Amino acid sequence: MSTRPEPSLNELDDISKRIIEELQEDGRRSYAAIAESVGLSDAAVRQRIKRLIDSKLLEIVAVTDPLRVGFTRQAMIGVNVSGQVGDIAQALESFAEVSYIVLTAGQYDLLVEVVCEDDEHLLGLLSRMRELPTVLATETFMYLKLHKQRYDWGTR
């Protein structure tokens, strides 16, 4: 069985883009409602969504405000490294508290978003991060309140 390469946005047709936009607006929207909106059968919509998920172009998840579901400390951590940035990013992927990692051009080599139960948990996490071999420094930006979070930017 041959493996299809992951589709890029350029390979998506207008209907797949509309399906993605429908799900960005409401990830619980039924196949029937999406089918009616885009002019396909329920089965065709289900198949397209499965293909988008299998290719990792689309993920359907429940998004919460961590501060309101028992995690009292959320932060963004700027990380500077002396070695290969990708190696540290890969090491940080294994940390359960890490929800987001981005390589940057600017003051920090990486920005790492974390969700912790409390300040002690965050302190332990920072100690583990600083023990990584090429981490030079970290700076922590504590989240006090989630003001805006959105995922409905559409497709191009």
Helical region count? 5
Question: What fraction, in percent, of the residue positions are helical?
Answer: 25-40%
Task: List the helices and strands in order.
Answer: HHHEHEEHE
Biggest pleated-sheet summary: 4 strands, antiparallel
From the spread of the alpha carbons, the general shape counts as: elongated
Hey, roughly how much beta strand do the residues contain?
15-25%
On the 0 to 100 scale, the average pLDDT is 91
> Spatial order of the strands in the main sheet?
2-3-1-4
Unreliable parts: 1-6
Give structural notes.
By secondary structure, the protein is of the alpha+beta class. Helices cover 35% and strands 20% of the residues. The protein has helices spanning 14-25, 31-38, 42-54, 85-93, 119-130; strands at residues 73-81, 98-103, 110-116, 135-143. The longest helix is centred in the N-terminal third of the chain and has 13 residues, at 42-54.
Offer a concise description of the structure.
The chain has helices spanning 14-25, 31-38, 42-54, 85-93, 119-130; strands at residues 73-81, 98-103, 110-116, 135-143. It has a four-stranded antiparallel beta sheet with strand order 2-3-1-4, with helices on one face.
